[in-house]
Amino acid sequence: MKKYQTITEISGPLVFAEVDEPVGYDEIVEIETPEGETKRGQVLESSDGLVAIQVFEGTTGIDRNASVTFLGETLKMPVTEDLLGRVLDGSGQPIDGGPEIVPDERRNIVGAAINPYSREYPEEFIQTGVSSIDGMNTLVRGQKLPIFSASGLPHNDLALQVARQATVPEEDAGGEGDSEFAVIFGAMGITQEEANEFMQDFERTGALERSVVFMNLADDPAVERTVTPRLALTTAEYLAFEKDYHVLVILTDMTNYCEALREIGAAREEVPGRRGYPGYMYTDLAQLYERAGRIEGREGSVTQIPILTMPGDDDTHPIPDLTGYITEGQIYIDRDLHSQGVQPPVNVLPSLSRLMDDGIGEGLTREDHADVSDQLYAAYAEGEDLRDLVNIVGREALSERDNRYLDFAERFEEEFVDQGFDRNRSIDETLDLGWELLSMLPKEGLNRIDEELIEKYYRDEGEAVEVEA
After folding, report:
1. Is 175 exposed, middle or buried (0-12, 13-18, 19+ CB in 10 A)?
2. What phi, psi does 416 have (nearest 5°)?
């Protein structure tokens, strides 16, 4: 390995150096400062005689007298089943005071999307314990279902709730298969306060035992932020496809990740795309999101819940816009519901899970799931429309039927959506609660539910009162 003292320029997180031999893209670099400190970096661009290196620990202390050594290999993640229960920094180094990681193998973090020919269609239910997700926007194994939030909203609380409650129901019941459930939590650009809250919750609830946590803080270098999700996904793929775990990967906050891409693009003097973000951001996000899925012949699965905060609450912003193209739906966190004290403040109307229909029903959740979900959507949407009308004509001008739908919308938010961040509901509890609310409406209004299911589950007014009492 040659050492070069040929640094020509330092720009933001990038170091430019002259070389006299070919250097590979993504190759790992060690930079030794004049003070003897060693920093790691990665080749971002390689052309004849000049390379651009992004430095993970930041360029502070690096000058033209620093030496550059190219290691001839790409960044690798040391993977082992013993990672469960560990807390690592954004570059994969342990920060929990535990022993050194002794890996089974070292895997290239770049990875690749699963070959479509080898993909198995996602259609097994994951129970999150959150009614607005399980009942209305069901998550299935191998899916990528982002949470669209905004600044100041409790998306982190919802992420923690899903991380500690998520289960594969048939595994809990001792069903077929011997896969276990694991959570990979990748935090990018979060504050120290948020990091402390995450760790306290993981330790308090015991969720850390089945989790691997990657922490990239707000004051860590932006370049490290581009590595963190790849380390997390490499770990997830190893646990899923080598150790047969069902792995749920939660990545927060993808907006911070995209801001890091923009910062690096500006340092490279790239021609910017929409709103200053790199033109290749769609490709970059797709390389991450498409690593979710199931592979034929393998027991395990990788399911993703990326979380992003929409700048200015704007869902046409490039980050949520491009994410929506790649992923299979979205869960919306609503500011109005949050201001009313609803926890979690999930607005089910613009939310969507495109793979829901294949992951619910008899043998997966319950035979009435699809019909109940459709009817709840329709009734809540009608109640929301009537709220706008009430603002104009007043409630007294509405018919008895319309007043029932208004009452339904209020109870739906207060009882179905608002369950608190510590309440864990099974899918049966969620569907039973849905029937209790639908029993407020006349039978003839339930036009999206099969008549046999109405006869089996519908409660008349007296029975509904009895249940509430």
Report:
1. exposed
2. -85, -55
* pTM reported for the whole predicted model: 0.90
Which two tokens mark 380? Answer: 């809540």
Task: Tell me the C-alpha distance between 447 and 459, whole Å.
Answer: 16
Is residue 344 reached through a cis peptide bond, with omega within 30 degrees of 0 on the bond before it? Answer: yes
Q: Are 317 and 310 in contact, with CB atoms under 8 Å apart?
A: yes
Nearest CA to 347 out of 377, 322, 374 is that of: 377
- Is the separation of the CB atoms in 42 and 53 below 8 Å? yes
Q: What is the pLDDT of residues 59-113, one digit of tens each?
A: 888 999 999 999 988 889 999 999 999 999 998 999 999 999 999 999 999 888 8
Check the CA dihedral 445-449-452-455 and report its sign: negative
Q: How far is CA 102 from CA 78, 79, 98, 186, 453, in A?
A: 8, 8, 12, 21, 55
* Residues 262 and 128: beta-carbon distance below 8 Å: no
Q: What is the pLDDT of residues 333-367, one digit of tens each?
A: 999 999 999 999 999 999 999 999 999 999 899 99
Rounded Cα distance, 248 and 213, in Å = 12
Q: What are phi and psi of 33, to 5 degrees?
A: -80, 165
Report the alpha-carbon distance of residue 323 to residue 303 in Å, rounded. Answer: 15
Q: Return the amino acid letter for 31.
A: I
User: What's the length of the chain?
Assistant: 469
DSSP letter (8 states) at residue 94: B
